[in-house]
Design a protein that fits this description.
The chain is an alpha/beta fold and 347 residues long. It folds into two domains: 204 residues, Medium-chain alcohol dehydrogenases, catalytic domain (Quinone Oxidoreductase, Chain A, domain 1, Alpha-Beta Complex); 135 residues, NAD(P)-binding Rossmann-like Domain (Rossmann fold), CATH 3.40.50.720. Helices cover 27% and strands 24% of the residues. Strands 3, 5, 6, 7, 8, 15 and 16 form a seven-stranded mixed beta sheet that branches. Helix 6 crosses helix 7. The chain is globular, with a radius of gyration of 20 Å.
């Protein structure tokens, strides 16, 4: 079968022929219908050989941690799934035994690192292939009649902002303000989630009018170019008070500094992006009683909720489709900032 693999540190991903996998006991074989392209993949492929090895990534690595598919074959002992079921893949795999996993919060599994459990595409073979193995049936959720290509990115680009935003909803009633920094793959979905679930006015920031056009298209109340004047613009929009919640989907040093600078008292500053930035926090450097959070992905239950938002028409993903053969070009477009919304690989 064909698969998109990262085969050598420092190289570009390439389409290769590999053997079709077979499910072992307790596993599920999916025929992949869609796989999402993410900046997290770029992060992995940007690591030095030393860091790549230290973080336990294998070579070759089949990419793709956003996946959807049709159940092709069931391993021995698998129940409550049938061949032909349409499913979405829950990516942050855990041990299934710890207290966090018992709550469906496998994104915060306390045993995964020690036991070498990795998400698909970020350690385990991923979804950018014609077929993929799911290690346990609890790691898929029903997709039903949702279009897999249109909705596969919700498994990360929807779940991650949903998890981040949900924790701040008590601070986002009527008359409040939420700032979204970065309106790309995750950010444009985050704007829609804020509009669907909160009473806040949404202020969206990005570096170009083209990207802010997408933010306006999906419901941002205000848009601001992310430059040295952005903080003053946000203060003006919020009447000098600042934002009640700031969601940084970039995570670079300048955006993190901006996020902290525009937070109101008792605000949440949530760093979602993995841009490698840091920010100095201390007395007088951020508003009183502001909280800084760095969440990771989301729970299985939250993925089901995100898909329900899609079914109700409250959330959708701007997508650009690529064939599996053209998957390397999707990463080139992502690196060039030329993807509007999310790139999706269709095997």
């Amino acid at each position: 079968m064909k698969a998109l693999q990262y085969t050598k540190v420092g190289s570009h991903p390439e389409v290769v022929e590999i053997e079709k996998p077979s499910p072992g006991p307790g596993q599920v074989l999916l025929k992949v219908t869609a796989a999402g392209v993410c900046h997290s993949d770029e992060y992995v492929m940007s690591l030095s050989e030393e860091d790549y090895t230290a973080q336990g990534y294998p070579l070759p690595l089949t990419l793709g941690h956003e996946g959807a598919g049709i159940v092709e074959e069931l391993g021995e002992g698998v129940e409550h799934l049938s061949v032909g079921d349409a499913v979405a893949v829950y990516g942050p795999w855990g041990c299934g035994r710890c207290h966090q996993c018992a709550q469906g919060k496998e994104n915060y599994c306390v045993n995964a690192a020690a036991e070498g459990i990795k998400p698909p595409g970020l350690g385990a073979p991923g979804s950018m292939a014609e077929y993929m193995i799911i290690d346990d049936p609890r790691h898929v959720v029903p997709l039903g009649d949702l279009d897999p290509v249109q909705n596969v990115s919700l498994t990360d680009a929807g779940l991650t902002p949903y998890h981040a935003i949900k924790a701040s909803l008590p601070k986002l009633g009527a008359g409040t303000f939420a700032v979204v920094i970065g309106t790309g793959g995750l950010g444009h979905v985050g704007i829609q989630i804020l509009r669907a679930l909160s009473g806040a006015q949404v202020i969206a920031l990005d570096i170009s009018e083209e990207k802010l056009d997408l933010a306006r298209h999906v419901g941002a109340h205000h848009t601001v170019i992310s430059d040295e004047k952005a903080a003053a613009a946000i203060r003006e929009i919020t009447g000098g008070i600042g934002a009640n919640a700031v969601f940084d989907f970039v995570g670079a040093k300048p955006t993190m500094a901006l996020a902290a600078s525009v937070a109101a008292s008792e605000a949440d500053v949530t760093i979602v992006g993995i841009g490698g930035g840091t920010v100095e926090i201390g007395f007088g450097r951020i508003a009183f009683d502001a909280a800084v959070r760095i969440p990771y992905w989301g729970s299985r239950a939250e993925l089901i909720e995100v898909l329900d938002l899609a079914r109700s028409g409250q959330v959708s993903v701007e997508t650009q489709r690529y064939s599996l053969d053209d998957a390397p070009a999707a990463y080139e477009a992502l690196a060039a900032g030329a993807v509007r919304g999310r790139a999706v690989i269709v095997p």
